Amino acid sequence: ENIESCSDGDVVTYESSYDTDNYIVIDECGNELGELGAKAVEWINKNEDNIKLIRINNIEETDSGNYKADIEIFYR
Fold it and tell me: What is the pTM of this model?
């Protein structure tokens, strides 16, 4: 539900989940937006030192009333 208060292009961050071996996406206010998929986690683990910016994009409501979005990762 926190995703609906975001806008396309908003900068987000990530942090390790204490419950899983995953990363949680966090908005600029510290609200949890959801977990990253396994392939994204694997990619971040390999490239973490080169990540410059992460932003949210393509926010949309699903048929079930939940929200989903894409995360864009910019790196050098």
Answer: 0.83
The neighbouring-strand residues paired with 56 are 71
Q: Which residues of the chain have pLDDT under 50?
A: none
Distance CA 37, CA 43 (A): 10
Work out the number of other CB atoms within 10 angstroms of the CB of residue 11. 10
The phi, psi pair for 10, rounded to 5°, reads -65, 140
What would the two tokens of residue 69 be?
A: 């979005």
The two structure tokens encoding residue 54: 């992460």
In sequence order, the β-bridge partners of residue 67 are: 61
- The token duo for 56 is 């949210």
Q: Check residue 18 and report its DSSP letter.
A: S
Alpha-carbon distance 9 to 7, whole Å? 6
